[in-house]
Amino acid sequence: MHIHIVGICGTFMGGIAAIARESGYKVTGCDQDVYPPMSTQLESQGIELIPGYSIEQIQLQPDIFVIGNVITRGNPLMEEILNRNLPYISGPQWLSENILRHRWVLAVSGTHGKTTTSSMLAWILDYAGLNPGFLIGGIPENFGLSARIGIIRSEHTQDSELNSAEISPFFVIEADEYDTAFFDKRSKFVHYHPRTAILNNIEYDHADIFPDLSAIKRQFHHFVRIIPNNGLIIANGKDENIKQVLTQGCWTPLEEFGTERKWNTQLLANNEIDIYFAQIHQGCLHWDLLGEHNRMNALAALIAARHAGVPVETGIAALSKFKSVKRRMEKRGTVNGVTVYDDFAHHPTAIQTTLNGLRTHVGRKRIIAVLEPRSNTMKMSVWKDYLAHSLQEADHVFCFTRDSQWAKSTLCTLNNRVDYCDDLNQLIQKIVAITKPEDHVLIMSNGGFGGIHDKLLSALQENQ
């Protein structure tokens, strides 16, 4: 069967492409921005990529077009598909019908922590020998790829010979609340029909599609409604918005984490963590990840893996070998005593928790935060009253934006602790000029940020 993916180069659709190809489908795709690393990653898997959305792609005659949620009405290829009444489907629905239908789906939802928690959970299951499939919105360093089908393979198995007996029953998916497609405005996660579901936290986000927090909570309620009563919901017991969602109706057993009488943690010296359930000690976790948010992510992953049959002690052993996720507090290098980190944080809560975790780790040493506010919600000034507060732990802040008026009005309470810049080279020069040994530079953006990380490390090297 041949599928043609329209809008293939995003992490989610690229993951679908990889899984489909691994499952034996012929896969082609197109996107407006076809460039490395996604282009080279897909091409290395034998997936033909076509730049742009030309109507000539109709001539490929795929069995079905799989439509990404970046595609809108007016897109020339989409208009031709509609005019010819050709078969098309959204990415989440295709995944549900062709990959997830007969599997034990473990879905990780929430405003923050989805990628890290999904990565932890997939790694625990893999460490336990369950070989799960997964689709994650980042690249877990333990795997080096964002998606796989999950094959229980003998040395004699060939890809062309795969059958259902050789596919792991378990599949971990990052369950995003963003909308599915221009023709399906439901959240993606309602398509996944999980047996195990994690609700990490709920905050207002995605202001381009949700008018308010109530609209987001309604989508989470729809998600909860489809989880079976032989499944499990794992919920952050500290989150009031999750509690409000669950009071609208819950038909599934519930386990909470983050509260004293349920699953919780205690931070010890040297970043060691005691794990407790019902005040009974379950084990001690030794790892390098920073912050309370990662301890909560770990609890959620341990509980979900336990539901799939993995003992807690095995899960703790797995997490002790967990290497984090690229772009989640990823240390990019240290030059002249200055350490540079890359982080995906783009929501005030994520920014604050990341900075708090780094502050706990470095003590009184200086933290220099470099922020590129580029998400749709950030640009709409939805968090204008919270952004400056989320940066309080930083000793100095650089804001990279071409809308200096917005930035200055948003971050004015930081006074002389903030600099504004709209030129990348000048920004790098300013950072180099202010840094000194033992400083920690935290770069935060949900985009590529012009390759600032390597450029900054090179500039620091030249400045020694």
Automatic annotation (TrEMBL):
It catalyses: UDP-N-acetyl-alpha-D-muramate + L-alanyl-gamma-D-glutamyl-meso-2,6-diaminopimelate + ATP = UDP-N-acetyl-alpha-D-muramoyl-L-alanyl-gamma-D-glutamyl-meso-2,6-diaminopimelate + ADP + phosphate + H(+). Pathway: Cell wall biogenesis; peptidoglycan recycling. Its EC number is 6.3.2.45. InterPro entries: Mpl (IPR005757), Mur-like_cat_sf (IPR036565), Mur_ligase_C (IPR004101), Mur_ligase_C_dom_sf (IPR036615), Mur_ligase_cen (IPR013221), Mur_ligase_N (IPR000713), MurCDEF_pg_biosynth (IPR050061). One of its GO terms (biological process) is regulation of cell shape. It comes from the Bacteria. Residues 108-305 form the Mur ligase central domain. Keywords: ATP-binding, Cell cycle, Cell division, Cell shape, Cell wall biogenesis/degradation, Ligase, Magnesium, Nucleotide-binding, Peptidoglycan synthesis. It holds the Pfam family Mur_ligase_C. Signal peptide: none annotated. GO terms for molecular function: ATP binding; UDP-N-acetylmuramate-L-alanyl-gamma-D-glutamyl-meso-2,6-diaminoheptanedioate ligase activity. The keyword Signal does not apply. Its cofactor is Mg(2+). Residues 327-447 form the Mur ligase C-terminal domain. It is an enzyme of class 6 (ligase). Residues 2-101 form the Mur ligase N-terminal catalytic domain. ATP binds at G110, T111, H112, G113, K114, T115, T116. Reutilizes the intact tripeptide L-alanyl-gamma-D-glutamyl-meso-diaminopimelate by linking it to UDP-N-acetylmuramate. PANTHER family: UDP-N-ACETYLMURAMATE--L-ALANINE LIGASE-RELATED, UDP-N-ACETYLMURAMATE--L-ALANYL-GAMMA-D-GLUTAMYL-MESO-2,6-DIAMINOHEPTANDIOATE LIGASE. Belongs to the MurCDEF family. Mpl subfamily. This is UDP-N-acetylmuramate--L-alanyl-gamma-D-glutamyl-meso-2,6-diaminoheptandioate ligase. The gene is mpl.
